[in-house]
């Protein structure tokens, strides 16, 4: 009896053990970082904090082992990743060209805490409409299960019945480009260090108004962002999370889908609603929904930094000819401008 009592006390003191993912979510939904909660742009995610432990880098290869970041995604169980369907447009024939990297805040990070998996199966939503980005949702089955630890956790998806009344603390994260400027188009499409930013949640009614996105928002979308803050090319498939203070955890309410330009005023980022697709997600993955665990740590804080932005859906594997095409279009515009000034 005494031995059993000691074992129970030790288990209570130690708390939930890390191991196979999927039993609970939200153990450390955002981690903790130093700084102020007043965030007007994006900031680097500090390594080793466990922040954004569910996020993954979805990559493809030109010539292995050289890889390029294409999109983000979030782990929802030990063997399933949630991301955007448009990340895989015209690139579904050879899944061996793709890899999923978990547990890293830097794209160049390697080591025992970083897990790399291949894609066993890709499920794009059956009603997905390219260009319009309707039903822009996809599931990726990993070739091997992932083991949870402090820097690899599963995201919490809210059921349709969950009332998300307080949406004041919402955040985005990704390795996307810093903007849609001339320089960013000629350089790498993303940022090496994972970025995070606090964003304003915007109701669908306001987001769909004539001064905002003018009727382009549907029931399967949610909106968030503001001028100077948002997602950008390369952030597609990544998470939008909002704090639920009642349980002290974060719900992932959105999957980054599309935007008009990058973080423009009244042009917020548009996400696929995880509540809308909740039943589809768990049906397609053949898994039971996981429940959030109430974290013991206080709510996280964030450090202000330069803005992270949003553009139209990122193209998978931006081949050099696409960058050259963009370069010559911009060069033509510049020459026409100079011609007008000189003559």
From TrEMBL:
Top-level lineage group: Eukaryota
Hydrolase is among the record's keywords: yes
CDD domains hit by this protein: Tryp_SPc
EC number: 3.4.21.10
Key words, A-Z: Disulfide bond, Hydrolase, Protease, Serine protease, Signal
GO molecular function: serine-type endopeptidase activity
Top-level EC class as recorded in UniProt: hydrolase
Signal peptide (UniProt feature, chain positions): 1-19
InterPro entries from the UniProt entry: Peptidase_S1_PA, Peptidase_S1_PA_chymotrypsin, Peptidase_S1A, Trypsin_dom, TRYPSIN_HIS, TRYPSIN_SER
A biological-process GO annotation: proteolysis
Boundaries of every Peptidase S1 domain copy: 39-286
SMART domains associated with the record: Tryp_SPc
Catalytic activity field: Preferential cleavage: Arg-|-Xaa, Lys-|-Xaa
Gene3D superfamilies reported in the protein's UniProt record: Trypsin-like serine proteases
Xref: PANTHER family: ACROSIN (PTHR24252:SF8), ACROSIN-RELATED (PTHR24252)
The protein's name in its UniProt record: Acrosin
Organism encoding this protein: Zonotrichia albicollis (White-throated sparrow)
């Amino acid at each position: 009896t005494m031995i059993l009592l000691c074992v129970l006390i030790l288990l209570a003191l130690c708390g939930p053990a890390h191991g196979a993912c999927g039993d609970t979510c939200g153990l450390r939904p955002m981690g903790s970082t130093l700084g102020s909660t007043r965030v007007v742009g994006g900031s680097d995610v500090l390594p080793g904090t466990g922040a954004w432990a569910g996020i993954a880098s979805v990559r493809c290869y030109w010539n292995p082992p050289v890889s390029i970041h294409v999109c983000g995604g979030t782990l929802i169980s030990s063997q399933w990743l949630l991301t955007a369907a448009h990340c895989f447009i015209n690139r579904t024939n050879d899944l061996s060209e793709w890899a999923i990297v978990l547990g890293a805040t830097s794209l160049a990070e390697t080591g025992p805490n970083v897990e790399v998996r291949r894609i066993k199966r890709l499920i794009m939503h059956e009603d997905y409409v390219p260009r319009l980005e309707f039903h822009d949702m996809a599931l990726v089955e990993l070739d091997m299960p992932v083991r949870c630890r402090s820097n690899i956790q599963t995201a919490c998806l809210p059921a349709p019945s969950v009332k998300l009344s307080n949406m004041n603390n919402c955040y985005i994260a990704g390795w996307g480009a810093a903007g849609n400027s001339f320089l960013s188009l000629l350089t790498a499409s993303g940022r090496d260090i994972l970025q995070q930013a606090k964003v304003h949640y915007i109701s669908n009614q306001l987001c769909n108004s004539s001064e905002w996105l003018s009727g382009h928002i549907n029931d399967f979308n949610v909106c968030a962002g503001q001028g100077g803050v948002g997602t950008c090319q390369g952030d597609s498939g990544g998470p939008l999370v909002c704090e639920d203070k009642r349980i002290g955890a974060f719900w992932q309410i959105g999957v980054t889908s599309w935007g008009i330009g990058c973080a423009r005023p009244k042009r917020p980022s548009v996400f696929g609603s995880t509540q809308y697709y909740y039943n589809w997600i768990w049906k397609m993955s053949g898994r039971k929904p996981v429940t959030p665990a109430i974290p013991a740590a206080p709510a996280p804080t964030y450090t202000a930094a330069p803005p992270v932005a949003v553009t139209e859906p990122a193209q998978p594997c931006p081949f050099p000819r696409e960058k050259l095409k963009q370069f010559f279009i911009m060069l033509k515009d510049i020459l026409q401008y100079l011609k007008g000034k000189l003559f």
